[in-house]
UniProtKB/TrEMBL annotation:
InterPro entries: LD-transpeptidase, LD_TPept_cat_dom, Transpep_catalytic_dom. It comes from the Bacteria. This is L,D-transpeptidase. It is an enzyme of class 2 (transferase). Residues 226-237 have a biased composition (Low complexity). Residues 83-220 form the L,D-TPase catalytic domain. Its EC number is 2.3.2.-. It comes from Paracoccus angustae. It holds the Pfam family YkuD. Residues 1-18 form the signal peptide. GO terms for molecular function: acyltransferase activity. The keyword Lipid biosynthesis does not apply. Pathway: Cell wall biogenesis; peptidoglycan biosynthesis.
Amino acid sequence: MIYLVRTLLAGSALLALAACETTPPAPAAPPPAPAPAPVSAETAALYAAQPDGDLTVPAIPAHLLTEDKARQEVDYWTDQPVGTIIVDPHAKRLYQVRPGNKAIRYTVGVGAAGYGFTGEAHIPYQRDWPRWTPTDSMLAENPEYYGPSKGGVDGGLANPMGARALYIHNSGGDTFYRIHGTPDPQSIGTASSAGCIRLFNQDIIHLAGNTDSMTKVVVLTKAQSGQGTTPPAAAQAKQTSGDPA
């Protein structure tokens, strides 16, 4: 009898152990992400609701703003002419060159097409609240989603091109590369499957207002990412020491 009881107890223990192994406790939920620090009143004002012709650009929600993401003047070293737009898609930044080793820095969202062109080009024209038409590849990949827009979408607050679009051409003509606004502010600073280079609507309005026809554009490669953000002497010393760029 004692042997039988011990056998039953051992069997029960094995069953309990097996149950623990096959149904582990659910992992603890990750702690909530810390709320972004509130931005200054000056930064908040840059992204307040903004009238633009017959439309009013909505304010950027406070939880999507940080001081680092906001447009600002920064130190920037380049031999490119003042006014040149330099796109660094891999760093999710766009710079417009200013005098005295300075630039206005914007944070951008980058779609798949934003990595499809590198090198030098220019902007022959821009459009306010441009019309948008999905590409053939978009229609082929997701006909249910893009099919209703096959004939094009007029400019407006819901248009994927946003408040402005800068059209990029080179010696071969239209590169089909665009710098534009977006109705989706949460995409800024991120990568996406569609689109080119997107800015907050408030930022694309600001950039377009300071961009003349035939402005030069330089789109950096992954190897060039971060170029211009380090003083030339420091960058040269880093390369000489053998440190990775």
